Amino acid sequence: MALLAQFKYLAILLHVLSVVVWVGGMFFAYVVLRPVAAATLEPPQRLTLWVNIFQRFFPYVWAAVITLPITGVWLIYVFWHSSPGLPMYVHLMSGLAVVMILIYMHVYFAPFKRLKNAVAIQDWQEGGRRLGQMRKLIGINLTIGLINVIIVSGGRLF
Fold this sequence. Notes:
Layout: H1 2-40, H2 43-80, H3 88-109, H4 111-120, H5 124-154
Helix pairs in contact: 1-2, 1-5, 2-3, 2-4, 2-5, 3-5, 4-5
């Protein structure tokens, strides 16, 4: 049992790093990169840039989407030994994480796939629609992610 408990430090590290990469990546892309790209690039360059960015970023998000539930369940087991005794902030964090994962999976399998196809055939109008759809969903996920960070950071205070 003591050996298993030692893995909690690795689980915490992986959990926090996954959140930083995913939420931090969304924050940078949404708040910094998006406005600059929209102001300086024409649709063909902008949409091609976004496809390339997402193709590089999404494997890290997939790693987070896999790592977060595994480490989260592990940490629940290590700290509380079961689900019934969990504090409310852990329930909130877990529920919001599931919503974020579902939104991400929708983004990846639907509008991102359509964005790639539109860029491949140079349908810039359709690509713009799909990028706009992704922008809204990523904005929602970013908001949920930041709320989750607040809940986790101050959870014991609520």
